Model the fold of this input.
Amino acid sequence: MLKIFTKSKKKKYATIPSETAKQDVPEGIMTKCPDCKKIMYTKELMKNTKICINCGYHHPMNAKERFNSFLDQGSVEELNADMVSENPLQFPGYLEKVEKDRKKTNINEAVVTGVGLVGGFKVVTAVMDSTFRMGSMGSVVGEKITRAIEMADELKVPFIIFTASGGARMQEGVLSLMQMAKTSVALKRFSDHGGLIISIMTHPTTGGVSASFASLGDYNFAEPGALIGFAGRRIIEQTIREELPEDFQTSEFLLKHGQLDAVINRSDLKEQITNILSIHQPGGDLEW
Amino acid sequence: MVGELEFERPIIELRSKISELRDFTKTADVDLSSEIEKLEARLEKLEKDIYENIQPWDRVQIARHPSRPTTLDYIGKLFDGFFECHGDRTFADDEAIVGGIAKFKGLPVTVIGHQRGKDTKENIRRNFGMPHPEGYRKALRLMKQAEKFRRPIICFIDTKGAYPGKAAEERGQSEAIAKNLFEMASLKVPVVCVVIGEGGSGGALALGIGNHIHMLENSTYSVISPEGAASILWKDAGQAKKAAESMKITAPDLKELGIIEEIISEIKGGAHKDIDKQATEIEAVLHESLKELLRLSEEQLVNHRYDKYKAIGQYSFLREFIGVK
Done:
């Protein structure tokens, strides 16, 4: 009993770091995993391709990070980097929002496309970025992806797309909807020419994006734990008045329901894709 | 010994007697080497007698042996860089069928096969290798993909049959099988099928419309299981042995009926005694098959398959008996 009193006497003050001390620890040096709540060095997390060191949670990657981790170093040549959105419906405040995200993310739209090498194999890659307007698809996203597909067709190389999107961009109305058609039409022509399409769905892939190019790969993959689906959970629950299972619309749920070829861990992704690309190289050994 | 088969028992008994004697000579002062030699000669003769006169029912037992190598066992030995693809993109991923892409001696191929489990747990997951419609739809999806990328297709057949269940019927088991037969007919790439265990009826045939069909020596291929046939014909599943003999379900029978191309010989006592060696036998036959088929054009391949199936069946005309033309 006495001991407790003496102990509590000692702790008279709470330590509050001074303003200068606070600034000594720059923001972002530590990252908390939203899944297991463990706090770790951001540097270490980045080194581990943004996979939680403790629980394996895949932190979302932005487009630049994805390009750097997936394509062979220094092989990337970006396409149409300077394409920017218009405001076709004169939607109030739309361009300001886009402008804000351009400043925040340092990219001009929600998808980055480029030509590069994966394990030495030439590919055209499109990477969607969920930090830009939630990766939503408007005219620019649709056009950039379509141009990337056409480039793959022209170069006769595989097309690989990383999807991350909330769906169609509301501010461009029906023009956004039509981007689903535009990209799909382009993919069909590419496919009929024998082109290889690989889709890798990352968190989140929903709405118009999941209902177009994301699902049209010769191989459809997903990263573990990603949310993938057409309609949102809340909308479905309100419509059918039923509670949905915990794992509803996760990668693993989709795999079980026949929608995915495989769920691939980010750390194995490059190796697995390189293997698939090598199997798709024209011409076998001389023996044949 | 686990998994010993009825007809092998004399061999196993003799073998254990010999090793007993060997152990005995090690500890005792008696020289029994001449006796051992004699017994070994007898064993050799016995093995020859039994394995060369292997009966249809014995083959059924070997084909069903719990440790008989499965599709994935052979895939691991025969192919490089196998990447398994899941799902029919519609309803589910049926683990009773596995499929994916790989390289066979450097040649890109698509491999598909029925997959049994090795233990009870895996068997439940894989439904004892008996597919649902989604399994066949996955197989067809992968075949179409192979066609797009001009990859030959290799199918391993090993199933008791398509799963007879409520859900399977609801989702169109018949349609799924029929569609595979229909679509496989027109595939513009070589298709080689290998029966590695049991070829059970329509469930087996749905992966079986190939330019070449090969069978392991102790595999079976039949319209129905011997038990099923016996209960239909004689209302007694206990007469399965008799049914196995009369139904012509073994590899030599099918060869004689002109259905299969090659019998792939097995090691004495069955493929499970040495998977590595068995894989090299299969590899050689596959290699020859593919080399031959790769010389054919797309049109020739489709016609080749047409002609193969057109030629199967036996019939005559009444007019041949009464002599009119």
